[in-house]
Amino acid sequence: MMDYLLTLKLIVFAFGASIGSFLNVCIYRIPENKSIVFPGSFCPNCKNSIPFYLNIPVLSYLFLKGRCRFCKTQISIRYLIIEAITGFFSLLLFLKFGLTPAFLYWFIFISVLIIVSFIDFDHQIIPDIISLPGILIFASSFYFLPEMTIKKTIFGILFGGGSLYAIAFFYYFFKNQEGMGGGDIKLLAMIGAAMGIKGVIFTIFTGSLLGTVFGISLMVYTKESDIKLKIPFGPFLSFGAILYIFYGKQLIQWYLGISLF
């Protein structure tokens, strides 16, 4: 029985890591408006196609010591990291939900958030080609998640997009400059479709807290206190949403317990 469970866990991790390899392609090509299907994987430096036996998630990077087999150019370790964290989240979802519709739903959701986070971090954009279809796709949450209903989904979309839109509107009204990108608004609407209003509130609170800590840490590190830092908000919203999936209820109960005390 133990051997069976271990084998199943390894398969689930390998499945996630394989999808992570595809996420790397999306992160690299979508901002460049390139096809995510053709051509196949290739070295960005020498342009040689990478055969399947050299494109095994995680293992190929370790075996080749992070270098292209053909031109020996160093390959960014981020490829390995994305494959590993996608496999890791796949395993965590399996341990929490088992092989259920909820597992598949949340895995797709987290995969989209990983793509969004790295694109936003690199380019300070969240492409509409991801967020807008994402709103429609994850509006099916009531079908996969017993705690969701059509009503919660609709209110989640309206509250998610509307709350950030209101913040952006008032910031522009008082500051006469944009303080919140439209991509963040659509991303939170997508998160609302998946999680409802409670998930949106948790995501905004957690994302804002993490973003503030990161911004202050960055200012301290750069020793600049008066510069305007352009910090993408998408990765912090994404992290907050992922945290809600695994520990949202426990953290909310803990926070309410402290508040009431």
Task: Give a structural overview.
The structure is a single chain. With 261 residues, the chain is mainly α. It has two domains: 1-99, no CATH class; 126-261, no CATH class. Helices cover 71% and strands 0% of the residues. It is built from nine helices and no strands. Helix 7 (150-175) packs across helix 8 (182-222). It is globular and about 55 Å long. The model has no long low-confidence stretch (mean pLDDT 88).
Number of helices: 9
The H/E string reads: HHHHHHHHH
Mean pLDDT metric: 88
Which spans have pLDDT < 50 for at least 5 consecutive residues? none
Key features of this structure:
261 residues; mainly alpha; 9 helices; 71% helix; globular
In a nutshell, what does this entry contain?
The chain has 261 residues and is mainly α. It is built from nine helices and no strands.
Describe how the helices and strands are arranged.
Elements (H helix, E strand, L loop, with lengths): L1 H28 L29 H5 L14 H20 L3 H23 L4 H11 L2 H4 L5 H26 L6 H41 L11 H27 L1
